[in-house]
Amino acid sequence: xxxxxxxxxxxxxxxxxxxxxxxxxxxxxxxxxxxxxxxxxxxxxxxxxxxxxxxxxxxxxxxxxxxxxxxxxxxxxxxxxxxxxxxxxxxxxxxxxxxxxxxxxxxxxxxxxxxxxxxxxxxxxxxxxxxxxxxxxxxxxxxxxxxxxxxxxxxxxxxxxxxxxxxxxxxxxxxxxxxxxxxxxxxxxxxxxxxxxxxxxxxxxxxxxxxxxxxxxxxxxxxxxxxxxxxxxxxxxxxxxxxxxxxxxxxxxxxxxxxxxxxxxxxxxxxxxxxxxxxxxxxxxxxxxxxxxxxxxxxxxxxxxxxxxxxxxxxxxxxxxxxxxxxxxxxxxxxxxxxxxxxxxxxxxxxxxxxxxxxxxxxxxxxxxxxxxxxxxxxxxxxxxxxxxxxxxxxxxxxxxxxxxxxxxxxxxxxxxxx
Length: 419
Ligand SMILES: Cc1cc2nc3c(=O)[nH]c(=O)nc-3n(C[C@H](O)[C@H](O)[C@H](O)COP(=O)(O)O)c2cc1C
Known about the structure:
Blueprint: H1 2-24, H2 26-32, H3 37-47, H4 50-57, H5 64-71, E1 76-78, E2 93-95, E3 98-100, E4 104-106, H6 119-130, E5 135-137, H7 144-150, E6 155-158, H8 164-176, E7 181-185, H9 195-200, H10 210-217, H11 220-234, E8 238-243, E9 246-249, H12 266-275, E10 279-285, H13 288-297, E11 301-304, H14 318-329, E12 333-337, H15 343-351, E13 356-359, H16 361-393, E14 406-408
Parallel strand pairs: 4-13, 5-6, 6-7, 7-10, 10-11, 11-12, 12-13
Antiparallel strand pairs: 1-14, 2-3, 8-9
Helix pairs in contact: 2-16, 3-16, 6-16, 8-12, 13-14, 15-16
Bound molecules: flavin mononucleotide.
């Protein structure tokens, strides 16, 4: 015992040394304080200009859908099973013919490089390291060819013009770059009413108003580490992947808030299905009827999503419609996103019929806090939570968690009030 105490004393200076080293690198220090996915939002809020933080965090209008996405998980509680050998736990999941290390991936997020330096590549690299999928948004700044080199397993998430010749040229570009999964985002026929973005001073194209300039100047870590570094090393950011042969600078008036096409319909989706040789996934479905149409059209999967509460503010939470979509999905893969922050959130969705989950904001905030290392930590945290939750539920694999593990939350009757 005495020996161990002596050892501890001997090692103290070395440990203090390491603690001091950590303090010297504030990014590492910040990272160590992130214990769950919500912590990345808190840490990013301190670093990012209000307008940029708001762009990521906000939902549409009164942000009802965004907040409902979180509270929907509280509708479900879980029943544990005990005394089962859970020492062979694995989260490995097969999707679109590939084996992934966990049942979740990184959702497509446009204009990420405005939020964190080289964010698309940072997220793509972290996903590759961790063995999970990363979806690149068409509304992004990093050319899709570059991201495909960083992570050859990346998926492409398109906002597509309905012009057949543009469709053909864009599919050709995506295919030549080596993408196998083409995800079509369909819940943005028009940009939504993001009043909170406007209040915070965010717009696309970015307008360097005095307010936005002051916001940037008072957040020097973002100004130098993201904005300045981007301009110096990569030039003025351009939205690079909306069309096969056209780029638009983020300060240019040509950039719409979001690349919606209100004249795009199932006929165009059918054309994409005919032309695209790889996996075709339709993202932003909330209705079972739409899932049926997607299946009949030959899609390989749908993403049940309300865009993180960033489109229709009265939209149902994906969790509410997951079982009915599953029933119509047939052999299609059912993915789900919007509001997933914890291991049990992921497992609840799998129990309600999802095959896979996508997570957005926390990974972009993690990139803003500490680049690729931040994203790696965020992936690790969610994966660790799932691992613990599997053990506590008494199962070895995520797909063993079925509806029998779920109970609707018990609402106690009101006491002491007149009937
Ligand atoms: C900053 C930001 C940008 C986004 N851009 C896109 C996009 O370009 N294409 C798309 O399909 N979805 C986009 N989304 C929606 C995400 O793919 C995903 O559906 C949503 O973020 C999931 O909800 P969560 O952030 O609560 O996890 C974006 C989300 C955020 C937060």
